[in-house]
Design brief:
There is one protein chain. By secondary structure, the protein is α/β, with parallel strands linked by helices. The chain has a single domain, classed as 3-Layer(aba) Sandwich (Rossmann fold). The protein has 4 helices and 7 strands. A 7-stranded mixed sheet has the order 1-7-6-2-5-4-3. Helix 1 packs across helix 2. The longest helix is centred in the first third of the chain and has 14 residues. The chain is globular. The structure holds adenosine-5'-diphosphate and magnesium ion.
Length: 150
């Protein structure tokens, strides 16, 4: 199942991310794919805000992962730099702890990802518009998408 959703502005992207944030539970995993500038980090920042994170959320490219305190802890991973290694960062603790995890460039750690997750692909339509392709795996994430689209 793939759900397609097009937004016309940055504000609509932020609204979508904040709505998703309200529906999240511990151990939820969201993967974000899309070209540079598609809006992966922007989406994560709004999701963090929706989770009540007060700190500034930057792309963790050089640290691989940052954790933030909110309504739920948020793990923000950008695994771009792991491309050529098979480093084990303790994936099970990351994905199956109390936190919500958002992973940018997730395909690079495909074997380490939970089998069930919400995959989101962001495509740039023009300067302000973005197409979201939501691909849930498993009942939990299918229900999450249904709630999100209500
Ligand atoms: P990525 O992390 O995918 O490389 P960023 O989130 O860093 O992308 O950058 C996305 C850029 O596109 C930001 O400068 C953001 O302000 C801009 N932008 C414009 N419209 C949108 C939109 N509808 N959704 C997300 N980002 C948008
Ligand atoms: Mg980014």
């Amino acid at each position: 199942m793939t759900i397609e959703w097009t937004v016309q502005s940055l504000e609509e992207t932020q609204a979508l991310a904040m709505k998703l944030a309200d529906l999240l539970q511990p151990q939820d995993t969201i993967t974000l794919e899309g070209d540079l500038g598609a809006g992966k980090t922007t989406f994560t920042q709004a999701l963090a805000k929706g989770l009540g994170v007060k700190r500034i959320v930057n792309s963790p490219t050089f640290t691989i992962m940052k954790q933030y305190e909110g309504r739920l802890p948020l793990n923000h991973l950008d695994v771009y730099r792991l491309a050529d290694s098979d480093e084990d960062l303790g994936w099970d603790e990351i994905f199956f702890g109390d936190a919500v995890s958002v992973v940018e460039w997730a395909h690079l750690i495909e074997p380490d990802l939970p089998a069930e997750r919400l995959a989101i692909r962001i495509e740039r339509v023009d300067a302000d518009a973005r197409r979201f392709l939501l691909n849930p795996t498993g009942t939990r994430y299918e229900q999450l998408c249904e709630e999100l689209m209500k």
